[in-house]
Amino acid sequence: MIVLGGQLSTAKGLDYAIFHAAQYGLGTLQIFSRSPVGGQSKPLPKTGTVTGWLEQAHIRPFFVHAPYFVNPAATDPQMKNRARVVLSEEMIRVKRLHGDYLILHPGHQQETSVEESLEALSQTIRYMLKKPGFVLIENAAGQGREIGASLDDLARLFSHLRRLRRIGFLLDTAHAMAFGYALTTADDVSRFFEQLDQKIGLERVKGIHLNDNMYPVGVKRDRHAHLLTGQMRPEGLQQLLSLADEKHWPVILETPGKDMAARSQDLAVITQLMDIGQK
Ligand SMILES: [Zn+2]
Known about the structure:
Elements: E1 4-7, H1 14-23, E2 28-32, H2 49-57, E3 62-65, H3 77-96, E4 101-104, H4 114-128, E5 135-138, H5 151-160, E6 167-172, H6 173-179, H7 186-199, E7 205-210, E8 212-213, E9 224-225, H8 234-247, E10 251-253, H9 264-278
Helix pairs in contact: 1-2, 3-4, 4-5, 7-8, 8-9
């Protein structure tokens, strides 16, 4: 059985989000623990209450997405320090929320080389890992000065972090397509995962953000779209789903909308393709 989940808003409370996910039959969930674009962070629910909710709703793993108002690849000392402070704090917040993983976007290249940015990013991650918890690097779309979009960049990053255990990879399909990896046919999907295995290792993969992308493959523009309304085609998507099923990778929808009602078409597509795959 594939473990499905979604990015949900916690505007009505974390308990509301958790039970909303359960209502839609989801087995996993992703939230932001604070506004991703900045501002004061809200107090967290009392320690212990969240595990109870997650248990009752049968939600695991529980993913928390790091805010993006800091740049973990910053080389400027002040910005670098700010990223370290905010992201270490976030590690503590994830622990208090009983989250399993903190998902991190690689960040942006400043007035320096890609190699130096990747080195700075690996230092930020080492700093974060002084706290308990598990960090997942998400591949970027390669918009503007984003680093960590190509499998080669990511391979270099993981080679810097080789000895660390509490680090993994989360694949965003919309970002991969935006950067230039076609995931259209079943062959495309197989080829992509072969490369991913060679460069990063499939054992590093801890989950998938399953999103279509509105813009053509390779134009480096990221706009999440409902499944099969952008660049994806049924055979490629089916191949992706059967791989996720086989490898037990949790699949998280970040398609448009703040709740699962808005994503019922995506859930229907997945159910239909999984059914066909099992026949
Ligand atoms: Zn994503």
